[in-house]
Amino acid sequence: xxxxxxxxxxxxxxxxxxxxxxxxxxxxxxxxxxxxxxxxxxxxxxxxxxxxxxxxxxxxxxxxxxxxxxxxxxxxxxxxxxxxxxxxxxxxxxxxxxxxxxxxxxxxxxxxxxxxxxxxxxxxxxxxxxxxxxxxxxxxxxxxxxxxxxxxxxxxxxxxxxxxxxxxxxxxxxxxxxxxxxxxxxxxxxxxxxxxxxxxxxxxxxxxxxxxxxxxxxx
Amino acid sequence: xxxxxxxxxxxxxxxxxxxxxxxxxxxxxxxxxxxxxxxxxxxxxxxxxxxxxxxxxxxxxxxxxxxxxxxxxxxxxxxxxxxxxxxxxxxxxxxxxxxxxxxxxxxxxxxxxxxxxxxxxxxxxxxxxxxxxxxxxxxxxxxxxxxxxxxxxxxxxxxxxxxxxxxxxxxxxxxxxxxxxxxxxxxxxxxxxxxxxxxxxxxxxxxxxxxxxxxxxxxxxxxxxxxxxxxxxxxxxxxxxxxxxxxxxxxxxxxxxxxxxxxxxxxxxxxxxxxxxxxxxxxxxxxxxxxxxxxxxxxxxxxxxxxxxxxxxxxxxxxxxxxxxxxxxxxxxxxxxxxxxxxxxxxxxxxxxxxxxxxxxxxxxxxxxxxxxxxxxxxxxxxxxx
Lengths: 219, 386
Fold this sequence. Notes:
The structure holds two protein chains of two kinds.
Chain A: H1 6-23, H2 25-32, H3 37-51, H4 54-63, H5 70-83, H6 86-96, H7 101-105, H8 111-124, H9 132-158, H10 166-186, H11 193-215
Helix pairs in contact in A: 1-11, 3-6, 3-8, 4-5, 4-8, 5-10, 8-11, 9-10, 9-11
Chain B: E1 14-21, E2 27-28, H1 32-36, H2 41-54, E3 58-59, H3 73-88, E4 97-101, H4 112-120, E5 126-130, H5 136-150, E6 155-162, H6 180-186, E7 192-199, E8 208-218, E9 227-228, H7 242-245, H8 247-252, E10 259-260, H9 265-281, E11 292-295, H10 300-313, E12 322-323, H11 326-329, H12 336-346, E13 355-362, E14 367-376
Parallel strand pairs in B: 4-5, 4-6, 11-12, 11-13
Antiparallel strand pairs in B: 1-7, 1-8, 2-3, 6-7, 8-14, 9-10, 13-14
């Protein structure tokens, strides 16, 4: 297993996640064209409760990288800054399809989001949480590789305007950039074997919890 | 760059709720005088002649039997909106935009939409007060439809509302010689309001009307004023509008009377037909797939002109596919097209897949508005959130 490169190992995690996502009810309805506007509304509602935490755990991770990991600290701080207004885009989408901002903001995390967010904060609290690059790989990968596809499919099935799917469309572009930056870090030589194991393990956990978040809508 | 995607996708706008409000009991031709006055023999003769020509048998006035006002224009608007919301089964709090059309609100300031919104309630919403005359109805619709298609709002309301009767009463016609240009409208216009709900999703359980397009065009650049009030003659002149000369003098000169240069109406009808033809020429109207026409016109004389002209271009158009309620609901200006649409819609004459053309010529200074609609069955499985 360790003879594989880090990229191969992460790719295996990704493939497994991809297969798992096909079985997530809301995504399978999206694929077969039976998804409803209510599904999209619920998805945004559920994602929002976790997305608001995104820049928090990233910046917390940034503050836990010592001077030996300066590059990672830089990357985390920059990433947190880029992400910290994203949830506003999601909120505008939610309102644009008829949802209530007050209800959205009063919402709570679902079981999967609780687990995902709790894990991220917990991990980000560790000294030099390099393993979080695995979390990034999954979350940014979903944004770069899947979000635009989902947005386009929601638009196609539900007849939505661009102004109603900003969040998913934007992530396609922004996260594409982020995964590019991350690939640079993974190949820069600052990742040792122990880090690589941590990164893969973190990716596995986050992949599972992210899918759980999508499965446990409103629970 | 959140907006950096090359191909912009818009939503689709659907009319999902229809409402109308006509104040009081219908007034037949014999009941007009009690409300508007004009008992002298000359006025009587003119009235009978005009009523005979315009073909209106019944209309509604927000006036009691002695001619005193019973409601405000904004109240008519709100009642029509409420009826459209009830038809859709939602509350005003769901609406994020209100576009109103009226020739004259109750007050000079603030805008009509603000007054209607205040009375309607609901939550914060975008407002637009479209003014003008009859075609302001579809100008308001166009604005609401555009915002829905952009995805800026999930639900918008549109209302056309008119209360001209109070200015058609005898007191406005005293002290000066009222010509044919003022009598024509006096015995033609009446009160009412019509409204629609516009959404980006079709009605979840009932048919809806998809808005395929709305077009409005003004030909004021090459036409004189045809319908006017507040000016001394057909040309606006510095120092000579109702705002310049003093209220008493303006009234004495008959500037507050609504007038129409009836000699221009044949040209108006012809221009309207040309506009229709242009929409056919550029492919927006496919005469082979045009199932229903709801045309606003002020008098039955123009019904025949318009119907014959369209019939030549749309061979399948027969009287069953042509809808107007002018004879029973009167000419309610910017409200007319929505009042007619509501009645046609609830009559069940439209079947899924069929197309409907709304046509609204406006004499004011020659503008024309059209909307093309398609009947769609309730969406399954997708639907708007309840």
